[in-house]
Amino acid sequence: MSLSVPYTVFVAKQLEIQALKRLKTRSNMVGVIGHMIHVLQSERGASSIYLASSGRRFESTRLELIRESEAVENSLRDKIELELDYSTHSNAKIISLMAWVLLGLDALPELRKRVTEQQLSGSDSVAAFSRLIAGMISLIFELADAAIDPDITRLLVALFNLIEGKELAGQERAMGALAFGSGHCDNPLQQRISHLIDAQQRNFRIFLEFVDESIETKWQAMEAMPFADELQRLRNILTTAETDTLLDPNLSDTWFECCSERITAIWSVQCHMVDRLEARCTRLIAEAEAELLDSKGLLRALRESPPARAGVIDRFFDPELPVEQSLSFRPATGKDQDGSHSIIELLQAQSQRLANVEVELEKSKRALNERKIIERAKGILMARYDLSEDAAYKKMRAASMDKNIRLVDVAESILPLS
Length: 418
What we know:
Number of strands: 0
Order of helices and strands: HHHHHHHHHHHHHH
Radius of gyration: 27 Å
Number of helices: 14
Helix content: over 70%
Strand content: under 5%
């Protein structure tokens, strides 16, 4: 087909549909990654109790969770393979993170073998699982940054923070299981648990900023469930226990069940959001395909009933028409109506819609970019002043409050120090 405005609009709409379908595929991948993280979190927690009890407890539970993890892993590998088949539509960072995730998945059998043979300490086991999960969360982060629709970007930003907060809750479950299982909680472990609790709240606070009222209601209902009070009681035992105080190992089951109930509730919210994400993609694709049909109709009408003269050109040569109006695209009326305005209106509507999308998309992606800046600044403070992650964050937050400026502005002032 020869180059023309309607043909160009037609091609643009086709490309938009392709991009939306790719987005739906990636949204589906986010759901599978989230599921993989969920099962690995459960396996990590069971492995902690297994190691803390010298292999006497949670052996059968752990083996059952391994089988579940392996099933989800096969699904995730299929999704990654599908993404690689269309790698020209991806970017190097996403593909590199996929390679990192695959490397971690390939190492899982050896990790499980070492846990079974009790060749790892509980903390080393937690760290090994957590590194793999961190790579998966980073992949979700990049997939969120590549979204092309503001509503989907907001959902992905919220989902990212929910999954990261849930991962911190999973680490808390694993570290608490080590403490109760071994019968003691030293000061470094107490500090780690306190940090995990604080960090969760930060993630969940951001999550709530990007969700609608229905999801917020689900979250509030979850926080009012009976396990919340029991969890707080057990947290107090862990974080206030003296170094030489023995903990009751029998509380490890109570702790694990309480934390698991909370994580399962968060998982339920996560599944609901993934469903919303896929539904939004499906709706956008259907709308775009309907618009494509309209574009085909325009093309057919132009071929079958070519205009007698170009109304747009007439306006350029009309001495009675102000220049600013002659340069603006506006539909013809009455007997001058020749169909060309349909294309112009389509272009105007499409341009306006894309402009609105860009504005909303920028708002949503700003949160992701600010998050990157804050994390980089936090890393600089940790390296330069030998601070823990929590101490570095508190230092930045204190500076933000003292100077009455945003946290990201504090972070940007720190970046030149690197």
